[in-house]
Amino acid sequence: xxxxxxxxxxxxxxxxxxxxxxxxxxxxxxxxxxxxxxxxxxxxxxxxxxxxxxxxxxxxxxxxxxxxxxxxxxxxxxxxxxxxxxxxxxxxxxxxxxxxxxxxxxxxxxxxxxxxxxxxxxxxxxxxxxxxxxxxxxxxxxxxxxxxxxxxxxxxxxxxxxxxxxxx
Length: 168
Description:
single chain, alpha+beta, 2 domains, 3-stranded antiparallel β-sheet, 12% strand, elongated, transmembrane helix, transmembrane
């Protein structure tokens, strides 16, 4: 199937080249020298406004890029400033993972100026769905993210407790 697609692609590219090539030839050999002479005469008469315009356009472009990068970031010093970050992450942690993992960082708490997680009436329903996903003696962690990708809130739901039986 892929070989047929490749052959069709090559045929389409060849037909487009066959149709476009005469126009490109006309542009480069007949129109471009006329335009080149006209622009060259225009710039050589008064070069200063064109140089100033080019420099201002370049500076404006650089400033626009820098401002765009700065506006995407939040106050977090480790913020990556992503454009279209995912809105939430769901992490399933098993019993072994919970047992050996470090305590969660304070990046999700109120210490960083983050508002507490308010879900309203949907909280119980969300917790019930997360509890269904959680492994036995493990937990499901739902991390809500800001538009830049930084964590904005965290919801932990523990899974069903599996009682260990002591063998005698």
